[in-house]
Design brief:
Blueprint: E1 3-8, H1 12-29, E2 32-33, E3 42-47, H2 54-71, E4 76-80, H3 81-87, H4 89-94, E5 100-102, H5 110-120, E6 124-126, H6 133-136, E7 147-151, E8 153-154, H7 165-168, E9 173-174, H8 177-189, E10 194-198, E11 207-208, E12 220-221, H9 223-231, E13 238-242, H10 251-259, E14 266-268, H11 276-282, H12 288-301, E15 306-313, H13 320-333, E16 337-342, H14 360-384, E17 389-397, E18 404-408, E19 414-418, H15 425-431, E20 435-443, E21 448-452
Parallel strand pairs: 1-2, 1-3, 3-4, 4-5, 5-6, 7-10, 10-13, 14-15, 15-16, 19-21
Antiparallel strand pairs: 8-9, 11-12, 17-18, 17-20, 18-19, 20-21
Helix pairs in contact: 9-10, 10-12, 13-14
Length: 456
């Protein structure tokens, strides 16, 4: 049996794409996934260009498998994702042993690219941006467990000055409403109970309202309508989405938090900075005051809402006052979690031309302060949950103790708890994939402990 090894870099979108690569090559090439590159017949690197020196890290990893190609000339080595989209044929020029280079929008063409490489003897590069073709050519969803990701749109049209995504994934393209709902209904039939809707700017999803074959008009379905439709699918009991943009958080989406109980009380809403001057330089399109007003409206609609965010520390020109404004925003909002990074220039973006004169040591110091404060706030929120009963979706055995179970709360905290393995192992096994009530008893470093609340 032939084997496929994939190394994935970056975000949940890349994880989703890698899973689709497994499905596509499993269906077309009869490949099965392996965790060992030495055993593989096909090796793929699904890359991300958000972090610093992403290109060099890719070439470093390629160098580590070069000897495998020398030992086995039939081995296929491929590079996909955003670095592939950014570098294109330059990857093959620098690493001639790479067989296929494909972008995020052409991963569905992998079987054809591999076949053409084998028949022609030449490396294949396809980093084009076919709009909806990728979604139309995906195999049926295959899931294991009670949770699943569903990609609903691709790309970004915001053109923030620091971000490479519009150039590597293209502009925003929304998947048709019927296709999304059909996929989610299929997942529900496979006992999926929680779905996470994915997109670079997921709440920018739009779809035209069909008014007949020759209808003219600009009426559209918006993201709030999609949430309502997913909410109506009977066996789907919990809805998440990521990543959203503040400019797309409409009044209708805010209203959804008041009327859709299946929509979780946890929102990831990237702000990036707390200084209006820095936000303007980033071309984010909102002010700190507007962001805070939006959070207030959301918490009126859903009082127990927890909010996580993205932060860039050390953006070119960031002063001490700018950073303190970010710390003030963190305090005011009470963020629960963050993905925070030191700024690194991405080639081809407008911000790459800005003077970046903040010392690296100072950036590291600021990042540590920011992360420490958010961790402290998250701990306070976790401690407030002790003694409460939480509805938990049981995902499987605990990673630290296979004799315990692990699940996730509505506000996205992992809870480890004892099932009933010794006295009733069959009942405990049946809990996996279902919702249970758990009383929270303690706060750990990155999780909670709880006790299963048994029905009378």
């Amino acid at each position: 049996m032939k084997k496929l090894y994939i190394r994935t870099f970056g975000c949940q979108m890349n994880e989703y794409d890698s899973d689709k690569m497994v499905d596509i090559l499993g269906a077309n090439e009869e490949l099965v996934k392996t965790d060992t590159p030495e055993d593989a017949d096909v090796i793929l690197f699904n890359t991300c260009s958000v972090r610093e020196k992403a290109q060099e890290k890719v070439f470093h990893d390629l160098g580590r498998v070069k000897h495998l190609k020398q030992a086995n000339p039939d081995l296929i080595i491929g590079v996909g994702g955003c670095v592939a989209s950014q570098e294109g044929a330059a990857i093959v020029s620098r690493a001639p042993y790479v067989d296929v280079v494909f972008g995020p929008q052409t991963l569905h063409r992998l079987p054809a690219l591999i076949d053409k490489r084998r028949t022609s003897g030449r490396s294949q590069v396809d980093i084009s941006f076919p709009e909806i073709e990728k979604f139309d050519n995906m195999p049926p969803a295959r899931v294991e467990g009670a949770t699943a990701f569903v990609s609903i749109m691709e790309g970004c049209s915001k053109y923030c000055s620091f971000c490479v995504v519009p150039y590597t994934r293209g502009e925003e393209v929304s998947r048709p409403l019927d296709d999304i709902l059909t996929e989610i209904a299929g997942l529900a039939a496979q006992n999926v109970r929680e779905v996470t809707l994915l997109g670079q700017n997921v709440n920018a999803w739009r779809a035209p309202i069909a008014r007949g074959e020759h209808a003219a008009g600009t009426e559209i379905y918006d993201f709030a309508f999609l949430l309502e439709c997913v909410h109506d699918i009977p066996d789907i009991e919990r809805i998440r989405y990521t990543t959203s943009h503040p400019r797309e958080m409409s009044a209708r989406i805010v209203e959804a938090y008041a009327k859709l109980p299946k929509l979780v009380s946890n929102l990831h809403l990237p702000v990036q900075a707390g200084s209006d001057r820095v936000l303007a330089a980033m071309k984010r399109g909102y002010t700190t005051l507007e962001y805070k007003a939006l959070i207030r409206k959301l918490r009126v609609a859903r009082p127990d809402l927890t909010v996580s965010s993205d932060f860039i520390v050390g953006f070119p020109g960031e002063t001490e006052a700018d950073f303190e404004a970010t710390m003030k925003l963190i305090e005011d909002v009470g963020f629960d979690n963050s993905y925070s990074f030191i700024y690194s220039a991405r080639p081809g973006t407008p911000a790459a031309d800005l003077v970046d004169d903040t010392p690296q040591a100072l950036k590291l110091e600021r990042l540590a302060r920011l992360q420490k404060r958010i961790d402290e706030q998250a701990t306070v929120i976790s401690e407030s949950m002790v003694g409460s009963q939480q509805r938990v979706l049981v995902e499987g055995p605990s990673k630290k103790n296979p004799e315990e179970l692990a699940g996730r709360t509505d506000n996205n905290r992992v809870v480890n708890f004892v099932g009933d393995l010794h006295t009733n192992p069959q009942r405990t096994s049946r809990l996996i994939g279902s919702f249970v009530n758990v009383k929270i008893t303690a706060v750990m470093s990155h999780s909670l402990r709880g006790e299963l609340v048994l029905a009378d």
